[in-house]
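User: I'm putting together notes for a lab meeting next week and I want to include a structural view of one of the chains we've been expressing. I don't have a solved structure, so I'd like a prediction I can at least talk through. The sequence is below, exactly as it appears in our construct file.
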Amino acid sequence: MGGSNSYLLDLALMFTAGAGAISMMATANTTLQLAVPDELRGRVMSVYTTVFAGTSPIGGIAWYRALRASGQIPARVASTRSVAVPSGSLGPPGPAGAAPVSTVRPIQ
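Assistant: Thanks for the context. Below is the predicted structure for the 108-residue chain, given as structure tokens.
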């Protein structure tokens, strides 16, 4: 998590954060489904899921930029600053019949 130098403490903090996130999502889904009329439940849940899941990448990018700007990204998690890019977009394709390969490039 970057806030400590203890691997075990970081694991415990990540477990706690994950458990909290799962509890929040389950509670939000249950509350929304109970509050919405039966005839609208599918539509409301589809919009909720789209908005909830669709905005997560935007929040991840915002957090990354904020942490990078403040110098809080430690070297041991620098690998999270990479993006998988299809190899065909980096140059000529490989040998005929070769399986597609992704190349990891750091974000600039």
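A couple of points you could mention at the meeting. The chain has three helices and two strands. Strands lie at 82-86, 102-106.

User: Perfect, that's what I needed.
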